[in-house]
Give the backbone structure.
Amino acid sequence: MRIKALLGHREVGVAVALVVVYVVFMSMKKEFLSAGTLGDIVTVAAELGTVAVGVSFLMIAGEMDLSVGSNFALTGMLLAMFITRFSWNPHLAFVVVLACAAGIGALNGLVTLSARIPSFITTLGAMMFWRGVALYLTQGWPISVFADVPLLRWLGGAKVYHTFHISAVWWLIIGAVFWVTLQKTAYGNWVFATGGKRAAARALGVPDTRVKLVNFILAGVMAGLAGCLQLGRMGSMSPVWGQDLPLEAIAAAVVGGNSLTGGVGSILGAMLGAVTMASIRIGLVMVGAPAYWYMAFVGFIVVAAVALNVRLGEVISWHR
Amino acid sequence: MAPVMRDSVAPNHAEQGTAPLMEGICLCKRFGKVTALEGVDIAIRRGEVTGLVGDNGAGKSTLIKILTGVYRPDEGELRFEGQRVEFASPKDARRLGIETVYQDLALIENMSIARNFFLGAEPQRKVGILNLLDVRKMRLVTEEALKDIGIAVRSANDEVSVLSGGERQAIAIGRTMHFGGKLLILDEPTSALSVHETNKVLTYIDEVRKRGLAVIFITHNLYHVYPVADRIVVLEHGRKVGDFAKDEISVDELVQIVSYGAQRVARSARQQ
Ligand SMILES: Nc1ncnc2c1ncn2[C@@H]1O[C@H](COP(=O)(O)OP(=O)(O)OP(=O)(O)O)[C@@H](O)[C@H]1O
Ligand SMILES: [Mg+2]
């Protein structure tokens, strides 16, 4: 019974995956289990995880966003440009670029919902379009902020402890807010219902179209915010960064128990999925393996974890 | 006893003793050249199950859509609790307590029973500045309401996907009762169910009737509706061709009317 109750959580699959990753890297290199390494992992996870939380929330409502990587790069670049080239007040610039990120999400939603086409298509187009815009802004060059800007330090530059960057704190807060919204509010119930069976949700008065639109916007804001966090941590942004981000975010979500077709998922799972992938990335660096093993390893974890999740789903139906 | 054919005159209330909960009077609906309904009168009473039967294309769904505000009738009027009403949308009908349960549309499989039960009407409690779901209340009320109509679930936190088809119908029915529905419309509730499951659903419907709600039960299968129905209304090519109290007619006579047409059955009855 105890074990069943424990298995009755969508996050078990990803927790197992995370343990496996840890055991593998620890057996290769003892230092993998240290505060310093954990700090590095959480720092990487914070940026990917912020995107994954937004994508996961949108996926549960039954839609997809492939444009998060382009949104991430474009938003980070705009923030850097407004601060360095136009000398805007950084706080104003931050608000404006987040509004742009929200606009990108809103456009995805409006086009998808009014043209009634799959969001996979809409956001595939948006991914290419906004990537093109980002490349055009600096003719493909990265952009850096050399001055000491307090806002950027607050976003990601500062370390709260050891190797732990402050961006991880923001990520945890965001994750908590999304988790509560999904699991403990009426809106969360509508999100599950809209993604689970849209017609039934609508018949009971759930504003399904509005739910989807709001979630598109949130996914856009989270992608843009992640770009700002990374700019804060690294001090620069390149128009070619974040190209793998959409697939990594979707991978984190499905490893964490989200369904590709909507109606099922977990914010905590997506966050643990992001930690798993960040662990693989850092672990490979530590054992001195070439970076291209990252994708191979992630590919393996995705398939294995989802296979496990499917088995768990059968248990979960009976006990939540 | 030969089936009694009645003309489409307004039903006699004095005879029934109670005023109907809902009435449709001389309802007509056309789609271009197709006349889907032609001068149909129907009276639905509290505490009664009205079986609505007829062949494919007879106009059953069209009639129901008029009663639930999906369509507006081209002619005729609707009365609810004695008042003339007009519905601009299904929302207006729901506000009066007219609820429809569709076979495949009613529930969301991947959500818990309690979350389904309260979907769109979630109870909330204030925690600090936050409005959070009252998860405990959702579970307790759902289990209570389901026990009320005679369905025991293991836990209201189980997913709907573990339930049988009949149990799913029961949950949708229980939801209507709980939220103060007065008229419950079931569109082919038993068409995809096994005999055993069908019997269960029929007992739930009986329970709903006992509570004084009015029920409309649409079906192709007379053998499903006959045991629970108090009245049976037969449509044919958009017209009402029969409106019987159950004790006026046997199930075999009804089957003949529905399958061979009211005219022919009446003619052969006269010839005997
Ligand atoms: N929206 C519509 N547009 C055009 N014709 C319609 C429409 N809805 C119904 N009809 C026609 O009206 C007639 C009655 O249809 P209705 O759906 O009410 O029958 P039904 O008794 O519900 O049949 P079934 O048992 O197959 O569900 C049919 O001839 C149908 O083709
Ligand atoms: Mg029909």
About this structure: Residues 106 and 214 of chain A are 8 Å apart (CA to CA).
